[in-house]
What does this fold into?
Amino acid sequence: MRKRVFHPCGNYHENYADQLKIYETDYGRFFAAAGLIVLFGLAPYVSSAYFLYILNSIGIAAIAAIGLNILIGYTGQISLGHGAFFGVGAYGAAFLATRWDIPFLLSVPAAGLITASVGLIFGLPSSRLKGLYLTIATLAGQFIIEYVLVHWEDVTQGTMGITLPKANVFGLEISGDVSFFYVIFLALMLMLWLAVNLMRTKYGRAFVAIRDNDRAAEGMGIPIFPYKLLAFAISSFYAGVAGAIWAYYTVSITTEPFNLGLSVEYIAMVIIGGMGNMSGAIFGAIFITGLNEILRWAIDLMMNMGMVTQTGLNLAPLREFIFGLAIVLFILFEPRGIAEVWRIIRSSFRLWPFSY
Amino acid sequence: MDFFIQLVVNGLSVGFIYGISAMGFVMIFKSSSVLNFAHGELLAMGAYIFLVLVTWAELPVYAAFLLTMAACFSLGFFVERLFLRPLIGEPLIFVIMLTVGLAAMFKGLILLIWGGNLHTFPEFLPTWLSLHWGSVSVQPVYTLALVVGTVFLVLFGLFFKFSSQGIYMRSVADNQRAALSLGVNVKKVFALSWAIAALVAGMSGIILGIINGVNVHDLSAIGLKVFPVVILGGLDSIGGAIVGGLIIGLLETLTGGYISPSLRDVVPYIVLVVILMVKPYGLFGQVEIERV
It folds into this structure.
């Protein structure tokens, strides 16, 4: 039997496969298993309905943020249209479910594929160019998609919105926060597992090579443009899946939430959580969703104390300001995000009496 | 026919203002290849500072204008000093994300201070500025824009051609490393280009404020409309920004007049996607050729 490794006091990698390992130590595997047991076995039963709602929102945001992280953190391209792609996923699922009665398990991945192909339309022109033209093309995508969602009334029913049927998995009806908790977090685990392992394949390595130096990557024989497009399509796919699950979760969708602000929110998640780090996307989703709720709570409190009078007017700008400030501060002081802070904390515990 | 001519005149006037707004953006891109997503917020800052000086402090218009220009100049300088200077040498993606963050921050700040309502400047433009040819008329504000815009264009042309700072800026835009090794103070050039860009943005913000009233949502939307304009004109060409602005303005008013008013705001972005497809470096942009 292999010796269990709990506490390495140095870097003992002997070959490339060692470096690619997800769990550095057997501790990691143990903690991951324990975390999953707590998450699935305990969390939905001990938390209140409101907290469960927050957890579910975090789960959905995390799926979309993982996708954006593949694009920003691993491939070095920025998408400013992630909010709109999220909307395309939501409307895709809504359309498939209401018009063609396609069941939940099929409509969610199908919505992801629809979103990926819509993403390709906007990715295609920009992928011919080096530099950050994708950012500009996705900005255009954001506005064009928003317009189409509002005005293509045959499909999206315009400002009326669509009400989705109840989701159904293998004959089990999914409704209520607890059952959605399982659906959302199982989907999150699946997508996370896919993303982590994708980054260990040749495709993932090619993405990282393109991010680090596109000329060198081309010199090593990586066809840059197809790979950039692929990364963009994968990232849109994640946004689409997240949007589709969100549509089922909120039941009734309208065109309003999918604006540029949402796109910036996802970018904030990726930057604050940590670019180029899968756990970063999850940290970011927790941070931003938590921040949203804390701000809402703080404003309610201030209103009860009579310090603020019109709540609706004050929440949105304050939120925007704090998001912007958080993005700016993280880029200036900890560009690798919360994931890096977490790593530092962990390793200082691990190395405790003798750090350095 | 009159309708058509009036639309063309309106389109060209609006387009010229887009062009002026885009000039500041191109200036930053030229010297530091940063896509500035906070440009609309710089426009809004200029408009709001002018608003405060004119309505609250009740300064005469000329003094308020000059003070606003000075304030915007120092704002651009401080933004560069505080937020962008630490990122020199970092990957470009961080810098661009930073401008996205700055945009959200400034927008939130403006909303917190002034709220989201529409404010208007008091009327101060003399009516003799408006032009008439038969049934076609041009509002005084557009004449003002034309005059101010042309003055700025000529000034920039002279500045880049003859002043030593202008030549330094062009050299940094051309090749940062070569400029550095020849003793150009690149940091100073960055600071100056941000300051000038903010100044131009503030000026166009004032003009836009006179036309549509001052509202941070509208102004930041125009800041994003700069992207189609500069992609069409070529990202690194100041003249191209003006031409791109004119074309986009024309297309907007013609679509608004003949097809549908709601399509008006989306047309620039459709043009943007098409341009990226057929002529990715724009009309006057420099084509980069690179072989590996």
Remarks:
- The domain at 25-354 of chain A is CATH 1.10.3470 (ABC transporter involved in vitamin B12 uptake, BtuC).
- Chain A has one domain: 25-354.
- Strands of chain A lie at 162-163, 167-169, 172-174, 252-253.
- Chain A has a mean pLDDT of 81.
